[in-house]
Each structure stands twice: as C-alpha cells, then as structure tokens.
Amino acid sequence: MPTFLTLLSGQMPIIKRCFSNGGALSRHGFIEEKSVSNSLLKKLTQIGTQVVQDIVDDSDQEVGGITTATILARALVNESNQIISKGADPKEIRVGIMAAVEMVIKQLNAMARPINRPEQLLRVAITSAQGDRAIGGLIYQTINTIGLDGQICIQNAKTIDVELRFCDAIKFRQSYISPSFINTPSRSLVEFDSALLFICRNTLTRAESIVRAMDLAELKRMPLLIIAKDIVDEALNHLVLQRINANAKVAAVKAPCLGRRGLTDIAMASGGAVFPKNNEPEPDPAIININDLGQVGYVTITKEDTLLIQGYGDAKAIVDRIDAIEEEIRLSSSQSQKKILEERMALLDTRVAVFLVGGSSEGDKKKKKDLIANAVRITSAAVEGGLVPGGGTALIRCMKHLESLIVENKDQRLGVDTVRRALRMPCWTIAQNAGLDGDEVVYIVETAPMYEDFGYDVVSGKYGSMSMKGIMDPTKVLCTAITNAAGMASLLITDHEYMISNK
C-alpha cells in the first residue's frame, strides 16, 4: 500500500508553495527549508497511513474483506497518481471513480445468487472461518438458531476448544457514556466477566453517590456497571479518573428509554434494586448494601448497545413479568404504549449465542476470537446479500459494463478506466501469490467465452466453474470492499493539497 508520501510524487510544487512566504536564513545565507520540508512530509506520511488504516478498520468491522479493499485501493491510488501527474483534474477523476463503483455494485447485486440450501450456508460458514470445520459448524448452528438479527457474544474460556451455548440476556440500545471505559480497544468494546450492577433512576452528579457501590464491587473483586438516567459532573469525572489512573473495572451507561418500569425490569432480571429507594434526588450511600446490587454473568457494551448475559434474577419471576407484559400489549389501545411494552418484552426476552473460546495461550485465544468475529460477519453478509463467483472472477465480469458507461468529460473517463483496470487486481494478486503469471491468469479468465462464473482455482490448479468448485464470495463483502477502496482513493487524491496547505 503506497503511503501518503508516494501519492505526492510529481507534486513538489504544492509543497514549495507552503514555504513561498519565506524561510529561515542560516548564517551562510541559505534557506533552511529542507529540514522543515522533511518534517512536513513525515507528518503527511503519517496522515495518509492513518487514513488508510481507519478506512480498512471500518471495512473490517462492517463485513470483513479488508484484503480485497486494500488491493483495490492500492491499484486505484497508483493509477490515479500517474494520470494526475500528467495534468488530469483530481476532482473529475474522483467523479469518474464513483460513477464506475456505482455501476460495479449494481452488476454485483445483479450477479448475486441467494443461499437457499443448508449445505450452502454450512459451506460459506466453513470458508469464512478459513476452512476450520469446527468453528464453521458452530457459526452455522448459531445462524440457524437465532437468525441474522440474533446477538452473538465471544468470551474467554479455560479450555482448549471452542464451545457454543445459548443463554438468556438483557439487551437495550445504550452505549458507554465515555470511551475511557473501553477495555477491548481492538473492537471498541467494554467487556466484563461476572459483573455487579448499580441501577439508578435519576441523574448522578456527586462522586459520593457512586463511591459506596464501587467499594462494594472492589471488596467482591468484581467489575461494576452503573446504569443511570445520566452521569455528569463530579460523578462522571470520578469514574473516568478511577478508570484511567487506578485501572478500575468500572463502566457506565444511560438507562434505556423505557421509563422507570424498564429499570425495574433490569433490576428484577439481575437480582438487584433500583436506587434511590426514597424520593431523594440521589442515592444515600449509607443504605447501599451488596444485596442491592444486581449481578450478571457477562457484560458487553458496543458503540450501539448494551448486552447483559445470564442475570441472577429469579427465572420464574422473569417469565411471569414477560407474560404480564404480553397481556398488557393485548389489552392496550395506545400504539405508543404498545411500542414501549414491546421494547420492554424484547429487553427481557433475548436469546444470545455465546462462543466460549479456549486455547493454549492468550495469543491463541485472541486469534480464535478474531477469526470467529470475522467469520460471523462474512457469513451473515453472505446470507443477506447472496453470493457471487469468487477468486476475483465477479469483479472481472464487471469490467465490460464500464466500457459503455457514459460520463461527461475526458478526465471522468480516466477515472472510470482506473476502476476498470483495478478490478483485475484481486485475481492477479491471487495468481501471483500462488507462484503463477498473474497477467496470463487474468487474461484467460477475462476472455473466457464459456460461462459467467469461469475462474481459476489455485488449489487444484484448474480453470472451471467457481460455483461448482464452491469458490464464492459474499456480494456484500465485495460491494463494501470496492466502496471503501474508492472512498480511500478519492480522499487521498483530492484532499492532499488541502491538507498540505493547512499544515
């Protein structure tokens, strides 16, 4: 992947304009511009690298496919850089690139085949898990049991293998109040094993309102999750400082927008109480005891929602509460009231698939957890958007549709042609990595008159139908890859002058 510095080849006049107002004269009368220029270029290299990293991370968190996105982005940037150095307008090239990408996505969706049979889903799950049949089988079982919208959680286990369990959970749409609480930076999550819950229906402003609950959690050597209407001022500052300076196992989220009864539901499901118990604005620390704190087996907080797994509340009381809410829904004539009741029922009646990941070391566990998370995203994407021929074949089949794409001017046509040539690169890279002539393989796949999914299988070393060989890619993964690659290239080729002039 070219860095931002590579992108500036042939663009030195832009850099020199940054110093056109004069430089510092040395005692010999020479302008000491070189060191300043080198410092600026170093910063620009870091900016470009970070831009690429951020976009790749976004692609990975959405559906995966970061390798394809990176290959396509590299080709787009290299091609665009060459034509820009010859005088083409970067903004018009960007317009052409985006028009071409829109056409490619349209053709990929038209080419997609739905997953209709269980064996297809199993094959996709195993392929997404990089050929691991055990993990692929568990992902297949997960999607069959809880569906695409079901919640999936990945936890560490003290075993060697990976196990799958289905558990009851509490889920609501609130994220962590401060990113300082994140303890799994790679996935921007807060994760706790066996945590206590301090639930408050009012806004917490004073540190003394939460210190007692934190002390109780510390005595039990357990993490603490605070759920309140809001946490502000001194209370929030105290939590953040304790998290940063003392590495306290604590996090806070806002209460779900379900009124007081929603908080009561959470307290009942976790075996805790709602504070304050009287009409005071904030809890009285003197009356908080360990039995008032709820408890759950596992907590995961994402950028969108909070999931509490295996609450310690009374199971029969939870079932009775769900039945009572169903009856209220049946009797209610208010649509707004019904919506709140349905959300309360969903909060209590959530099933979650829990992957218990063991391994020979922490590094081995982390590798397996990342593999499972990525495989789940890719498999879900395949079920949602269907499959297209893999091995770069689908992208090559889109090339012919770009030849007739109508654009407004010559520079936009250069942008379209840049995308058309870049679509060869995934297939070319696969062949090159297998020790073959990438140009020859791409030519044969591109010019083959046989059938649409004709491609090359590097494992068997034979050409043929990719669908018959089971070499298929999720449509959504390819669409996301080409979209993010184009976004990355467009940002780098159109914004570098702005960034230089503002440094």
Q: How would you describe this protein?
A:
The protein has 503 residues and is α/β, with parallel strands linked by helices. Helices cover 53% and strands 17% of the residues. The protein is built from 18 helices and 13 strands. It has helices at 4-7, 12-17, 34-62, 66-84, 90-111, 118-128, 133-146, 208-219, 233-245, 259-270, 315-331, 335-348, 362-385, 393-403, 410-422, 425-433, 438-447, 475-501; strands at residues 151-156, 162-172, 190-204, 224-231, 250-254, 274-275, 294-301, 306-311, 350-357, 387-389, 454-457, 462-465, 472-474. Strands 1, 2, 3, 4, 5, 6, 7, 8 and 9 form a 9-stranded mixed β-sheet that branches. α5 (90-111) packs across α14, α5 runs antiparallel to α18 (475-501) and α6 (118-128) packs antiparallel against α13. The model is unreliable at 1-34 and 496-503 (pLDDT under 50).
